[in-house]
Design a protein that fits this description.
31% of the residues lie in helices and 26% in strands. The chain is globular. By secondary structure, it is α/β, with parallel strands linked by helices. Strands 1, 2, 3, 4, 5, 6, 7 and 18 form an 8-stranded mixed sheet that branches. It has a 5-stranded parallel sheet with strand order 9-16-10-11-12. It has a 5-stranded antiparallel sheet with strand order 19-20-23-22-21, with helices on both faces. Keywords: Disulfide bond, FAD, Flavoprotein, NAD, Oxidoreductase, Redox-active center. It catalyses: N(6)-[(R)-dihydrolipoyl]-L-lysyl-[protein] + NAD(+) = N(6)-[(R)-lipoyl]-L-lysyl-[protein] + NADH + H(+).
Length: 473
């Protein structure tokens, strides 16, 4: 190993090049700082390489495949077999990832950000060492932003082997569609990938330890998803406590206790998706004096500062909702604060999106949360079954629900389950963020026939004069 004799001086150092890190680096560079970013892997982090983007590519492919199989309902008859070439699908998915990571690389260079390859370890509050395969170099910095993200949490009783017992990383690179596929964990990761593989032809079983899928999500939303899973032939077993399992060579066997009875489940592969843990345990944070909580998440204030004034943390490693767009949002806050601006975190309208079938998206307060905060809420729900565009797409399951203050009609929250909920939530986030009331939405002309009309109709329902549904008395 070649060791650098002298420490190199950098102004701002960003650790991690995911949707938090690369955004922070670019924003700091825009504000006039000299910035370097370090990552041991390809730029783009988990989101672009092993998470958001590759999973949505596979989900999109599975939806296209299902669309072809169901085209007969629209009078489109497909003769012969429709097959899934999994190696080609994965090759296509990797091409999508490569385009995006290449774009991020170009953006960093275009903004004058130095890219350093290697693994970072703090050696003090103003220094760290970057170790690569053939070198080790110490860097001294004025400010640093930690954006190291998170990784799949592992079960000691069912550890990953990368062959048949998989994390989400391996599940995104299977070279075949499993005949049988077990998913341990009914959260959004397990549900999204389980649904995708079910559409591609796998016999899927989801084992969830709590009473329902998507713990913490409004039950009215998850009911629609559970109903569709049943149509897809997915077996969902709740209150299933996994006791262990092993790779037998030809298959994986999982043992779980269900209603007090131990049952055995076997499949070609098992995806373990029981949450994520922060990548903070091998950073040497103790040498920098940075405090973490009992789970390893870095403690930050409303300006993304840690307990060490010139050290910031953003995204998954700083806890809260583990969302790529949250990391990007915090990245801008941290960079601006570091450059002397008085920016502050405000999560009033954070969008949450689950790429289930149908999709789920929500922001702001639920009816129960609104009551807890002292509001007298009024709730209006408009069904996609009454929307012309949804019906013409043959995707009319679900609804848009608006929660508003009864007196002022201010929009407090929006919940959507249905086609393209991930896209529709943008209008809802804007409404909650700007403090809009239901009339602001209702009086905005929405193009016809489109899915966003459902938001307008739900807003009219709050006001008591919806046209395409019966108003509550």
């Amino acid at each position: 190993m070649v060791v650098g004799d002298l420490a190199q001086e950098v102004d701002v150092l960003v650790i991690g090049s995911g949707p938090g890190g690369y955004v922070a680096a670019i924003r700091a560079a825009q504000l006039g700082r000299s910035v370097a970013i370090v990552d041991k892997d390809t730029v783009g982090g988990v989101c672009l390489n092993r998470g958001c983007i590759p999973s949505k590519a596979i989900i999109s492919a599975s939806e296209r495949y299902m669309g072809i199989k169901e085209a007969g309902e629209m009078g489109i008859e497909v003769s012969g077999d429709v097959n899934v070439n999994m190696p080609k699908l994965i090759e296509w998915k990797n091409g999508v990832v490569k385009k995006l990571t290449g774009g991020v690389n170009s953006l960093l260079k275009g903004n004058g950000v130095e890219i350093i390859s290697g693994e970072a370890y703090f050696s003090g509050p103003n220094s760290l060492r970057v170790v690569s395969e053939d070198a080790s170099q110490t860097y001294k910095f004025n400010d640093v932003i930690i954006a190291t993200g998170s990784r799949p949490a592992e079960l000691k009783i069912l550890p990953f082997d990368g062959k048949r017992i998989l994390s989400s990383t391996e599940a995104l690179n299977l070279q075949e569609v499993p005949k049988r596929f077990i998913v341990v964990g009914g959260g959004y990761i397990g549900l999204e990938l389980g649904t995708a593989y079910a559409k591609l032809g796998a016999e899927v079983t989801i084992l969830e330890g709590t009473k329902s899928l998507l713990p913490g999500t409004d039950e009215a939303l998850t009911k629609m998803v559970t109903r569709k899973l049943k149509k897809l032939g997915v077996t969902v077993i709740t209150e299933a406590m996994v006791q262990g399992g092993e790779n037998t060579g030809d298959e994986v066997v999982v043992r779980a206790t269900v209603n007090g009875e131990e049952k055995t489940f076997s499949a070609d592969y098992c995806l373990v998706a029981v949450g994520r843990k922060p990548n903070t345990d091998e950073l040497g944070l103790e040498f920098a004096g940075v405090e973490t909580d009992e789970r390893g998440f870095i403690k930050i204030d409303k300006q993304c500062r840690t307990n060490v004034e010139h050290i910031y943390a953003i995204g998954d490693c700083a806890g809260g909702a583990l969302l790529a767009h949250k990391a990007s949002y915090e990245a801008k806050i941290a960079a601006e604060v570091m450059c002397g601006m008085n920016s502050v975190i405000d999560y009033q309208a954070m969008p949450f999106v689950i790429f289930s079938d149908p999709e789920i998206a929500y922001t702001g307060l639920t009816e129960a949360q609104a009551k807890e905060e002292g509001y007298d809420p009024v709730v209006s729900r408009f069904a996609f079954a009454a929307n012309g565009r949804a019906l013409s797409m043959n995707h009319a399951d679900g609804f848009v629900q608006i929660v508003a203050d009864k007196e002022t009609k201010q929009v407090l929250g929006v919940q959507i389950v249905g086609p393209e909920a991930s896209t529709l939530i943008g209008e809802a986030v804007f409404a909650v963020e700007m403090g809009a009331n239901a009339e602001d939405i209702a009086m905005t002309i929405h193009a016809h026939p489109t899915l966003p009309e459902t938001i307008m109709e739900a807003a009219e329902g709050v006001l008591g004069h919806a046209i395409h549904m019966v108003n509550k008395k």
